[in-house]
């Protein structure tokens, strides 16, 4: 079979593009996409005929081909550049039939670029309830394009779309219309002479958007500037006049193809569900109350509902570990397998339920259209802190993972707002912190306690940690706003989509993808670090390790055999390479209440904080004091005794100090790499690393000193 | 009587017709999102603290900040 044809999905935001993408590709999607964030292109395959597949490329939603923010830039970089590896053989423009004129604007621009195009009319049912009847056969004739009526959400009309796409792929018909608004012929010739023969509208796009297109070198950009100067061509004016002109032509088309059944001027406006819901969610007091309540329920749920599957996984891992120990011969390799790998992987697996719940809630906010309402009610407040209503999306999805959250800042048009959002997003407590919070909270907050007999105190503490992260994020944003004195305009023109019932299949796919990505990405790191750590904790410099045995026996002749082997194990850990590292940094972390064992965990966490739990279980299992009955990490940490006081090591002061440290410290290489990629400078990830780590150290210090 | 105003001065529930734009850069964005001169708009929501605001235009809801709304000239329609 030859190269698969490539089809791009293009459309206004909320026109149903993602629904169509999911209907067409199902589980055959290549890129895992985090809920709430569709910033990058997504690819998948669609079996258009038995045995014939096409590649489907889902692009970010846009209103026109002229980009206003970074996420929109991606579209012209693909559609405007035939040399791009993603340049499609044809496009499907998904149009919201209930808002036809505006959706056709984008369609006409895409078609004028010289790309064979099919028009997919979505939400015809909505248009009909609003009293509009569309004659799609006539529309197809008027626009000279294949039109398919679809219901993307229910997956209806896909066969009609197959037919339309098949025809268009066969004849590759692309319109060759004149420019919507004539320009100087000499100027067009000038562009084509220098940059090659192309569709006139595409040449013009190059001229107007050359600064946003990655295909051009700095010299070529200068050449474009020179052409603009020579012909006194004003891009912005042209774009505006072009848009007006296109609307004029499309108005006539719509006039001829759409019948409006309720064209009485005084028809009483119908109160839709969206209107009713908005009167609550956008209410100046009620809106905030509801939002806060929603977040609160979300964290209660993450803690309480997820507890049942988590306990089951926890018990399963402990059982597997014990079973392996009884079956396998006791050796160093068995130790690595059970205490290193199984414990480390178990540390990740156990958090799948919580992470799935978290992703579920975020996907829900996005799916139903509620997220845009949050942006609306939060904009003014966020602006005071140097952020933007649109910063709410990165901040909320930062609760899942900072990497896609930072990528989602591309929709923020203003550079300054975007930069500040990027800088503070990692302070939001991500899902990798959840395991650490869970373990530590369960150690320092009593399990059975409730507030007013209603709220689980552990859930409340968890909610507090997330709130703390958010507060620190906006305070840091405010500080950065004072430092970055750039006057720049930021937009907040945005559409509030109608409320929609969540598409559970769609959500299931994205939750599955996210959880899979989390487990495999985090799993890889944890396995690698567990092995390294196990080696470092099992071997020591020189012959110190081998001498430990004899020394301990000599010093403690009266101990029982079990106690003796525990003592030897912990002495060995202390003399290992890992022990030396831990002791090396102990003076620095002592004021925060940490001992050298926690020091080892801090060192390993600097690459990725999710290894904390795995590290702890490796350290404590190697360090002896293991009761094989209940060898979970929680129990091991609970049994740890502070040698100076003789009381449990993980008391309230240490617990909270560690919680605070992990809440604020920058311990994620992937996030720093993403910040570098998104800001194109090492300066910002460096600042991010130092300010967050300093903040963590300082606040943990204060916490420990106050509580101790 | 029709009085010329900007969108920022519209009260909740009031309807108006778009007459023109005073900001060239914003006008492109507004046009692309369907705010055409001649179309009818209704002020539907004000966010807490009175900013941003939400309007209804040809069947869907748009939000914008007050200073952005001030660049849209309108003709108040009597209900």
Automatic annotation (TrEMBL), chain B:
Keyword Iron belongs to the record: yes
InterPro entries: Fe-transptr_FeoA-like (IPR007167), FeoA (IPR052713), FeoA_core_dom (IPR038157), Transcriptional_repressor_C (IPR008988)
Record Pfam families: FeoA
Keywords, sorted A to Z: Iron
Record domain Ferrous iron transporter FeoA-like: where: 5-76
Keyword hit for Iron: yes
Domain of life (superkingdom): Bacteria
UniProt xrefs under PANTHER family: FE(2+) TRANSPORT PROTEIN A (PTHR42954:SF2)
Protein name: FeoA family protein
């Amino acid at each position: 079979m030859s190269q698969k044809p490539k089809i791009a999905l293009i459309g206004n935001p909320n026109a149903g593009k993602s629904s169509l993408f999911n209907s067409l590709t199902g589980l055959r999607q290549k890129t895992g996409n985090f809920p709430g964030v569709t910033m990058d292109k997504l690819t998948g395959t669609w079996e258009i005929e038995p045995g014939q597949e096409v590649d489907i490329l889902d692009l970010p939603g846009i209103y026109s081909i002229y980009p206003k923010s970074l996420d929109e830039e991606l579209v012209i970089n693909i559609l405007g550049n035939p040399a791009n590896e993603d340049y499609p053989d044809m496009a499907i423009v998904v149009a919201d039939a209930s808002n036809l004129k505006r959706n056709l604007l984008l369609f006409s621009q895409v078609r004028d670029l010289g790309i064979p195009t099919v028009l997919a009319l979505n939400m015809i049912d909505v248009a009909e309830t609003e009293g509009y009847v569309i004659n799609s056969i006539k529309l197809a004739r008027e626009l000279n394009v294949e039109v398919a009526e679809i219901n993307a959400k229910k997956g209806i009309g896909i066969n009609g779309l197959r037919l339309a796409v098949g025809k268009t792929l066969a004849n590759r018909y692309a319109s060759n219309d004149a420019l919507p608004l004539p320009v100087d012929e000499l100027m067009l010739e000038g562009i084509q002479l220098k940059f090659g023969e192309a569709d006139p509208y595409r040449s013009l796009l190059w001229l107007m958007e050359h600064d946003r297109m990655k295909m051009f070198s700095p010299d070529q950009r200068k050449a474009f500037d020179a052409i603009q100067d020579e012909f006194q061509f004003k891009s912005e004016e042209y774009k505006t006049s072009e848009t007006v002109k296109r609307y004029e032509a499309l108005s006539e088309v719509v006039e001829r193809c759409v019948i409006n059944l309720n064209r009485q001027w005084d028809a009483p406006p119908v109160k839709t569900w969206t209107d009713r819901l908005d009167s609550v969610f956008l209410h100046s007091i009620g809106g905030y109350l509801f939002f806060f309540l929603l977040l609160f329920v979300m964290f209660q749920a993450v803690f309480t509902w997820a507890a049942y599957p988590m306990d089951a996984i926890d018990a399963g891992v402990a059982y597997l570990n014990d079973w392996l120990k009884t079956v396998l011969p006791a050796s160093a390799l068995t130790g690595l397998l059970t205490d290193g790998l199984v414990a480390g992987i178990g540390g990740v697996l156990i958090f799948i339920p919580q992470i799935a719940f978290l992703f579920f809630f975020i996907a829900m906010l996005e799916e139903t259209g509620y997220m845009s309402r949050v942006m609306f009610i939060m904009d003014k407040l966020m602006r005071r802190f140097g952020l933007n209503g649109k910063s709410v999306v990165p901040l909320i999805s930062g609760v899942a993972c900072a990497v896609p959250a930072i990528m989602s800042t591309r929709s923020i048009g203003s550079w300054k707002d975007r930069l500040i959002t990027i800088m503070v997003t990692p302070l939001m407590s991500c899902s990798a912190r959840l395991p650490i919070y869970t373990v530590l909270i369960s150690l320092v907050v009593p399990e059975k306690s409730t507030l007013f007999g209603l709220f689980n105190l552990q859930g409340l503490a968890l909610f507090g940690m997330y709130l703390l992260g958010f507060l620190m994020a906006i305070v840091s944003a405010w500080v950065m706003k004072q430092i970055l004195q750039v006057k720049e305009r930021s937009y907040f023109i945005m559409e509030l989509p109608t409320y929609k019932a969540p598409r559970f299949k769609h959500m299931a796919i994205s939750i599955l993808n996210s959880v899979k990505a989390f487990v495999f990405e985090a799993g890889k790191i944890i396995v690698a670090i567990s092995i390294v750590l196990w080696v470092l904790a099992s071997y020591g410099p020189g012959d110190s390790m081998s001498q430990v045995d004899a020394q301990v026996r000599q010093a403690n002749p009266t101990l029982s055999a079990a106690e003796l082997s525990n003592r030897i194990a912990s002495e060995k850990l202390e003399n290992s390479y890992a022990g030396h590292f831990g002791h090396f940094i102990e003076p620095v972390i002592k004021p925060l209440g940490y001992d050298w064992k926690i020091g080892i965990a801090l060192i390993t966490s600097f690459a990725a904080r999710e290894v904390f739990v795995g590290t702890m279980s490796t350290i404590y299992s190697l360090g002896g004091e293991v009761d094989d009955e209940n060898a979970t990490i929680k129990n091991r940490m609970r049994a740890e005794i502070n040698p100076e006081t003789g009381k449990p090591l993980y008391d309230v002061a240490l617990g909270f100090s560690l919680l605070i440290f992990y809440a604020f410290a920058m311990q994620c290489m992937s996030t720093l790499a993403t910040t570098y990629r998104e800001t194109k400078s090492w300066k910002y990830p460096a600042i991010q690393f130092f300010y967050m780590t300093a903040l963590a150290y300082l606040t943990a210090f204060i916490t420990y000193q106050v509580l101790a | 009587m029709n009085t010329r105003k900007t969108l920022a001065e519209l009260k909740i529930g009031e309807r108006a017709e778009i007459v023109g734009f005073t900001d060239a850069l914003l006008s492109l964005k507004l046009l692309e999102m369907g705010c055409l001169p001649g179309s009818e708009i209704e002020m539907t929501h004000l966010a807490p603290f009175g900013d941003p605001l939400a309007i209804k235009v040809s069947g869907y809801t748009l939000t914008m900040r007050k200073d952005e709304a001030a660049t849209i000239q309108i003709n108040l329609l009597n209900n």
